[in-house]
Known about the structure:
This protein is 42% helix and 15% strand. It is built from 16 helices and twelve strands. α12 (272-279) crosses α15 (323-340).
Amino acid sequence: MILTSPMRVIAYVQEPLSNAGSRCRIAALAPGLAAQGIDLRVCPPMSDGLAAWCRRGGRLRRLIYYTLYLLLRLRDIPRAIRADAVIVFRGMFPIGRPWMEWVVRRLNRNLIFDFDDALWLRPPFATGGYRWIDLRASAKVLRRARAAVVGSPWLEEYALRHCRRVEVVPSCLDMARHPMRPDRPGDPPVIGWIGTRSGFCYLHTLDDVWRDLQRRHGVILRVVSNGDYEAEGLRVVNVRWSLEREIEMLHSFDIGVMPLIETPFERGKAGFKLLKCMAVGMATVASPVGVNRAICGEDESRGLLARTPEEWLERLERLITDPDLRRRLGEAGRRFALDHCDLSRAVESWASLLREVVGEGNSE
């Protein structure tokens, strides 16, 4: 098939572009796809500022949030008619049945569903409001989609039960935006974690480890998030996340950590926090859950793996007391990120899939 004009693709993302998934998995593709003749237009549900205002309050603001979300989505749905293909990332509305996806599929047959979490499982940090989420929505959307894109092989196994065409595209990074962290004394060493406050439940499983490390080595625990991490007897440096300061904050870590709980939900994680730390040349310790084992290497040549609190304490103490080991692991992790996780790889995979889907659609 020969296109005489740029391929037009609309992407509906479930969260504003301040969300790492919306920004890094979808919006970041636009410049690379444009160079290949594919015009990607991303439709977040609302602006970052409006979403933040709605979430800073009680039930009334939550009601305003969902009302605005619905109205703005209804405004954007007709854009699917004029597109050559449509991407839905995670979902078009956060609660209820996936009726919007059904409408979009009626308007455009070339629907591609992308997700990087086990959306069909209840996460350990779920609150009472999770009862409004349809855990069967992902299966319903997959059955309507022409193709699916997932973040890991474990998610691929699930997607293939409902969709015949599934592509694994790991979460990738714009490595040009992630320069190597400069050498710093690391005294006292800084253990860092970056993520949303919903992930605090994973950090809390190791509160005794953090306290032991502070008592023995005086380490600094720095948490970059949208909330304050607190635990009894633990000194924490909380830093508000911002896109402008994200790399600066990563460079301030000596050791990056990604603890997880061993449940089916966590097996679907794409290891994004781990890759962010590796991308800037930082030594890391992670739970051997999901793709973390593959990212760190079975021989732990790129990052250390720890399952129990005792293993976490031992691995972290090794890194704290051995700056050369931190340097070697950091360099190996960065090489892995450069070779396997650069955004250009995701662009190539998406461009190939979009041409395939649009070509099949036009031939029917």
